[in-house]
Amino acid sequence: MTQDEIAAAIAEFDAAIARDGGADTPWLALQTLARKAIGAKLFTIMTVDMKNELARRAYTSDPVAYPTSGTKPIHRDRWFDVVHGAHRSFVANTIADISTVFGDHETIWALGCGSVINIPVVVGGELLGTVNCLDVEHHYTPERVERSRLLALPAKLAFLAAGRAAA
């Protein structure tokens, strides 16, 4: 992706959330940006409630396989240590590696995905949630992982805009 393509994708993201205050608009705009920047067959947003140790899917590109209803408990494992503890992106590039931290790995595989990057969204030292991109095995190369850093600021803005839309 060239600098001009990056600039155009970010401008498109900005324009989308500036003109439309719909509840899913920030997530759709971020999904479009993520797909252009790093690729994502499956795109989801998780929010976290650390007080109650619960995670909730706030958005999904596949509402049949991954609906947005309900919550799930937060598990303290190596994924937790990377994302919650160190506030770094978690990357797994094979379904075997994914299966060590995600109990739904069979669903992930059935959707044609075998790699994942979970990007933490942190504001004021607090983890608000994660941007989750999944694609074919070995998709999240070091170059794509580096490029995923471009999503950090737009992700924060999307969480802010989604909070406004929900209020």
Task: Extract low-pLDDT stretches.
Answer: none
Number of helices: 7
Can you write the helix and strand succession as a string?
HHEEEHEHHEEHH
Q: Give the overall average pLDDT.
A: 93
User: What is the overall silhouette?
Assistant: globular
CATH topology: Beta-Lactamase
Strand order of the main beta sheet, please? Answer: 3-2-1-6-5-4
Query: How many E-type strands?
Result: 6
Q: Which structural class should the secondary elements be placed in?
A: alpha+beta
- How many whole angstroms does the radius of gyration measure? 15 Å
How would you characterize the largest beta sheet? 6 strands, antiparallel
Quickly name the level 1 CATH class. Answer: Alpha Beta
- The share of residues in helices is 40-55%
* Count of domain modules: 1
Taking the alpha carbons of the first and last residues, their distance comes to 36 Å
CATH architecture: 2-Layer Sandwich
Tell me the β content. 15-25%
The CATH superfamily is identified as GAF domain
Protein name: GAF domain-containing protein
Organism: Pseudaminobacter salicylatoxidans
Condensed summary:
It is built from seven helices and six strands, in the order H-H-E-E-E-H-E-H-H-E-E-H-H.
